[in-house]
Amino acid sequence: MTIFWKYYFDCTFFNLLFGIVVYLLSGFVWALILCATLGNLVGFLCFGYLKGEQYSLYFNLGYTKRFLFLTMSLVNGVAGATALLLYLILS
After folding, report:
1. What is the DSSP letter of 89?
2. Which of 15, 26, 35, 90 could form a disulfide with 30 if both were Cys (CB 3.0 to 4.6 A apart)?
3. In Å, what is the CA distance from 78 to each residue of 46, 59, 67?
4. What is the 3-state secondary structure (H, E, C) of 29-86?
5. Which positions, given as ranges, span the membrane (predicted)?
6. Cα 14 to Cα 12: distance, rounded to the nearest angstrom
């Protein structure tokens, strides 16, 4: 499962760049919501465009694109929902 985390952090880097742009344009709450939802797709597409040849490595290790994307979306969704809930409770 450690190879999944390498993929996760690579895609999350692109997701965070997207989140910073959204934060600068519309604020923290929208950045958090979009990072947890639409940012996954942005990270997935950027990874596919910039590092797409690495998908053969993941496929050879038994991970499909669908599994990688859905698992990354699940992790980011749970983390984003938790962060949003904490923000709403503390503010």
Report:
1. H
2. 26
3. 22, 25, 17
4. HHHHHHHHCHHHHHHHHHHHHHHHHHHHHHHHCCCCHHHHHHHHHHHHHHHHHHHHHH
5. 20-47, 67-90
6. 5
Model pTM greater than 0.85? yes
- Judged by DSSP in three states, 17 sits in helix
Q: Give the tens place of pLDDT for each residue, 21-78.
A: 999 999 999 999 999 999 999 999 999 999 999 999 999 999 999 999 999 999 999 9
The pLDDT tens digits for 4-13 are 999 999 999 9
Instruction: Provide the residue type at 23 as one letter.
Output: Y
Question: Does residue 3 contact residue 63 with C-beta atoms inside 8 Å?
Answer: yes
The pLDDT tens digits for 61-74 are 999 999 999 999 99
| 49's tokens | 């465009």
